[in-house]
Amino acid sequence: MNIHHLLSARFAQAVQAMGIQDAPIPLSRSTRPDFGEYQFNGAMALAKQLKQKPRDIAEQILANVKLDDVASKLEIAGPGFINIHLKNEWLSAWCERALQDSKLTIEPHESKTIVVDYSSPNLAKEMHVGHLRSTIIGDAVVNVLEYLGHHVIRQNHMGDWGTQFGMLLAHLNDKLKSSSVAETALSDLEDFYREAKVRFDNEAGFADRARDYVVQLQGGDAACLKLWQQFIDISIQHSEEVYKKLNVSLKREHIMGESSYNPDLVNVLADLTEKGIVVEDQGAKVVFIPEMSNKDGDPAVYIVQKSGGGYLYATTDLAAIRYRANQLHAQRTLIFTDNRQALHFKQTEIVARKAGYLAESDSYEHCPFGMMLGKDNKPFKTRSGETIKLSDLLDEAIERAEVLISQRESSLSADAKKQVAATVGIGAVKYADLSKNRTTDYIFDWDTMLSFEGNTAPYLQYAYTRVKSIFRNAKQDMDTYQASVSVASVQEHDLVVKLMQFDEVLEAVCKEATPHIMCTYLYEVASLFMRFYEANPVLKPQVSEEDRSSRLGLCALTAKTLKVGLEILGIDTLEAM
Ligand code: ARG
Fold it and tell me: How far is ligand 1, taken at its centre, from the CA of residue 156, in Å?
C-alpha cells in the first residue's frame, strides 16, 4: 500500500473533475504533526494558470476530492495548502490486511530488467575496505529491486585482466619452479603483490619479462593462460570467503570479469571506427567528447586503444554495455564504485550513446560512494599505514561483538552467544556503512556502530528481539498472528502511519539506489515502536483482551517490517540476544 500513490490518484481525479487536464499533482509529507501527514501543494500553481485565488482553488479541490474513507480531516492552510490527516479506521483496516499479507501490502512495480554491477574487486590484490562499500550497498539495492518485482542481473565486473598481471604471472612462474604450490604461494595475495612489485621495480630483467607475459597473455598463449587461470581461481576464492562472511548474494555465476570482454574489444573498436566515432590521435585511437570540454574549449579525450595497441578499462566498459544491452536486455544499469570514477562513467555513457549501444529509454547510472575514513579523518588504514584487508576487518567485528555480548546479561548458552556475536558484529559493520549517505565520506568507528543506542544494527536487532520476547510471553506465534486492530492512541497512529510508509521508502531506494533511506526509516519505526510500547502496555494485567490482541497486532507488524527491512539490507535478525 503506497499512501503517496493513493492520495495522488485521488487528487488527480479531483482536478480532472474540475475540468483541468494533466495538471501536476505535487504532494509531500507534512513537516509538522499538527499539519497532518501529507500535504497537497497544487492549488497555487493551478490558481496562477486559471487566474483565480489559490484558496478558492483549494476550496474547489476540497469539494471534488473523495477521501472520506482515508482522511479524518482535510484543511486549507496558508496560501492554499491542503493538509491531510489520516483516519484511524483506515489505518486499522490496513493493519489487518498487512498482517495477512507476507509482502506487507507492498505493491509490485512493473518489472524491468536491471543490471547491477557491484563489488567488482581487482583480483591482483586482496579485497580491501574500498570494496566493502560497493559490495554491501550494491547487494542491498539488488534486494530492494528484487523485492519490488524487478528482474535483476548481478554482474561482478572483476578486474582480472590488464598489465599488472604480467608482473604477477612472472613472479608466480618463478615461485612454482621452486616447487611451492600455487595455493601456498598465493595464500596472502597482499604479500605476493608486494614481492612482485619489489622485483618489478628493482630486479634487472624482471620488468621486461613481466611485459612479455602481458603480450603472451593477450595473445592467448596456452601456458600463460593456464598460469593466469590458477591465479584468478585462487583470488576468486579469497573474494568468495569474504562474500560468505559478509552474507551477500554474489555467487560465481555472477562473475563477468574484464577478461570475458577481451575477445570483443577488437569488434568494439572496429564498430566505433566504422561509425566514425573514433579517430587516430598521436598513434592512439580516441573519441573526442566536445560535450565535456575544458575551459579552453578543448574536448575531453576518451582513449579506447593505446598507441602500442593495448586496450583500456574504458574499452572494456563499452563492450560491457553492448553485451548487457544485446544479450542481457538491460533496461537500466546501476554501477557502484567510489566517486573517483564519476568522470569515467559520464564519458563512457556519452560515447556509448553516440555509438547507439544504449537505447534512448535505457538508463546508465553510476552510483558513486564516498570513502571510508578513520577517526583521524584520513583514509581508513592500519596503524602502520597499510590497507586493511576486508577479511581481517570482519573477523575483528565478530571478536568485538563477542566481548560486547559476553558483558550483557543473558540466559543464552555459550554457543548461542557466539552465533549472536557473529550476527551482531557483521550486522554492525554493514549497517554502519549502509546508514550513511552514500555519496559522502564517512568515519568508521567501532564504538558507535556496536552501540545498542542510536541508529545502529544492534539497536534494531534488539528492538526485534524485544517483540519476539513479547510474543513468547504472550504464548503466541508472531509470524502467523492475526488480529482485529484498532488504532486509537497518538502513539499507535504515528506508528501505523510510519509502518504504512514502508512502500514509499522501498520506492525511493529503488529510484535513488540509496539504502540509507531505508536505515533511517527502520530506526524511526523502532523508535516509534518504543514510544508506543511505553504508552500502550501490551501484556500488563489491566489491559483488556481486546486491546491486548490489537496491540499485539501492532507489535507483529512492527517486527515483520523490521525483519523484512533488515533482511533487504542484508542484515540478519535474532530470536533473542
Ligand atoms: N574493478 C573496478 C575497481 O575496483 C570496478 C569496476 C566497476 N565496474 C565497471 N563496469 N567498470 O575499481
Answer: 9
The CATH code that applies to domain 390-569 is 1.10.730.10
What is the architecture of the domain spanning 3-86?
2-Layer Sandwich (3.30)
Q: Where are the chain's structural domains?
A: 3-86, 113-159+257-372, 164-247, 390-569
Phi, psi of 442 (to 5 degrees): -145, 155
Listed as own residue / partner, the contacts of 11-17 with beta carbons closer than 8 Å and 24 or more positions apart are: 11/40, 11/42, 11/61, 11/65, 13/64, 13/65, 13/66, 14/61, 14/64, 14/65, 14/66, 15/42, 15/46, 15/61, 15/64, 17/64
Q: What is the pLDDT of residue 466?
A: 96
Ligand 1 binding pocket includes 157 (Cβ within 6 Å): yes
**Confidence band (pLDDT; 50, 70, 90) for 185?**
confident
d(CA 109, ligand 1 centre) in Å: 29
pLDDT beyond 90 at 255: yes
**How confident is residue 342, by pLDDT bands cut at 50, 70 and 90?**
very high
Report the mean per-residue pLDDT for the chain. Answer: 95
CATH 2.40.50.320 describes domain 113-159+257-372: no
pTM (2 d.p.): 0.96
